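Take one protein record:
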Amino acid sequence: RHIGRKSLNEHFTGLVGGVEPEEAKTLVWARTKVKPGSVPEAEGEISVQIGAETTYFKSLAAAFASVATDEVARVTLLTNVLIDAEAAVKGNVTLTGGEYGIYRLDNYRITVSGAGNSLCLTNVTVNGVYFGNRITSTCTLFRSEDGGLLTLDDGAVIQKLRGFSTVSRTEAAVSVHDGLLTMRDGSIIRNCKPDDEDYVCAGGGVI
């Protein structure tokens, strides 16, 4: 059934409790654009810009989850943040920190999986430690797999992780499994233990 402008406005008015029709339409439209895990700007620790729209989050995992596979996003740290949950990157994401950095809690990691999905780190330091300088993490921090692309651009630093190798398992700061890792001038992986062999585990491409 065709709904005319007047009946449509009345429908909006009923949804939001009797406010003016124009206000009602604005409120209903705004509600449809809220992304899971987003918070008001004043509470945000991370911003995600997609086109002209900027959304704010307190969780890095939620920030990454807000980006769809076909979207291009810029994720910016607004304070020091924790990796406190497993995070999966979709779309084409650039992560920058400036004066702020990322610290890992426990052994959570960030994974870029699938062709067409990419993560570029630029001007940001990612630490495998949370308590002072004690290296406690013993698991891969970044994983590129199944065609996913990870790029360390100028100013990207990954540091202070503990890797290990056994006959059946290898954990390194960055693991590449049928994906691609590109390290550009000005990027570095450093101060990891026990030795340089556990900085990158490559079962794919490294440039």
